[in-house]
Design brief:
mainly alpha
């Protein structure tokens, strides 16, 4: 589990801080759902997650991470719309991403989500 958490932490840093220019972040905040930047960023999160854990079995989890990251970014943008305290929202978003990564990491490594996948694939 530690390896998955570490690699996904690195993927998160890459996607959020290195592969996301300031203009993309600004457009996501300004236009929220209407911003194509939001969806491109979610694809970047997906790509970074897959790149850091390059196994076929992880693709579904990388998709879940990207969708949850999209939801977190949307929630952050809605909450901070018109406000200026950037650091507070970056901290909230980062903590939410780490919580999601931890929950998915525990679920993946312990097999908790296997039953869910089996039910979905019936």
């Amino acid at each position: 589990m530690e390896k998955i958490l570490l690699t996904q932490f690195i993927a998160h840093l890459i996607a959020d801080f290195f592969a996301q220019p300031e203009c993309v972040s600004r457009r996501k905040q300004e236009y929220i759902f209407r911003s194509w930047h939001l969806y491109i960023h979610a694809l970047t999160v997906f790509a970074a997650s897959v790149a850091m854990t390059p196994t076929f079995g992880f693709v579904l989890w990388a998709g879940a991470i990207a969708v949850l990251h999209l939801g977190i970014d949307t929630a952050k943008s809605v909450l901070r719309y018109g406000k200026t305290n950037e650091a507070e929202y970056v901290l909230i978003g980062t903590l939410m991403c780490f919580a999601v990564a931890f929950i998915l990491g525990v679920g993946i490594t312990s097999g908790v989500f296997e039953n869910v996948i089996n039910i979905i694939s019936l």
